[in-house]
Amino acid sequence: MTTDEQAIRTLIEAWLKASEDGDTAKVLELMSSDVVFLQPGQKPMRGRKEFEAAQGGIRDVEIDGRADIQEIHVNGEWAYCWNFLTVTFTPKNGAAGRRAGNVLTVLRKESGRWAIFRDANLLTKVDG
């Protein structure tokens, strides 16, 4: 495994940990300022500000995410990562829900570190 591949794995682990901790500021640090998130049935979420605004809807929700990395490919200052993500959302006063699916992330090296540049998230609701 190359140093860049390990750095991308570390970024994904940091994202999951920060999400579990509710640390939006840390999550924002892991993405480019011009990041774009694509999700089924929704308009693209563009930039850190839109992402941060969307986080308001999950402030009282515990998040448990697991990424099963399928592939990482690095080409200079660009990389992509395909993983299978499973996320359990548990509202403070409600029943847990789960979503799972493939995620394809394009990363860009910025000031010597990897950042999420584009993310196509194909998570769908999982029963049980």
Describe this structure in words.
- The mean pLDDT is 93.
- The protein has 128 residues and is an alpha+beta fold.
- The chain is 27% helix and 51% strand.
- Strands 1, 2, 3, 4, 5, 6 and 7 form a 7-stranded mixed beta sheet that branches.
- It has 3 helices and 7 strands.
- The N and C termini lie far apart (36 Å).
- The radius of gyration is 14 Å and the shape is globular.
- The longest helix has 19 residues, at 3-21.
- The chain has helices at residues 3-21, 24-29, 47-55; strands at residues 31-38, 45-46, 61-75, 78-91, 97-110, 113-121, 124-126.
Strand content: over 45%
What is the percent of helical residues?
25-40%
Number of strands: 7
Rg is: 14 Å
Largest sheet: 7 strands, mixed
Terminal Cα span: 36 Å
- Number of separate helices: 3
Mean pLDDT, all residues = 93
SSE succession: HHEEHEEEEE
Structural class: alpha+beta
Q: Could you name the ranges where pLDDT drops below 50 across 5 or more consecutive residues?
A: none
Shape: globular
What does this entry show, briefly?
Helix content is about 25%, strand content about 50%.
Write the layout of secondary structure elements.
Elements: H1 3-21, H2 24-29, E1 31-38, E2 45-46, H3 47-55, E3 61-75, E4 78-91, E5 97-110, E6 113-121, E7 124-126
Keywords:
128 residues, alpha+beta, seven-stranded mixed beta sheet, 3 helices
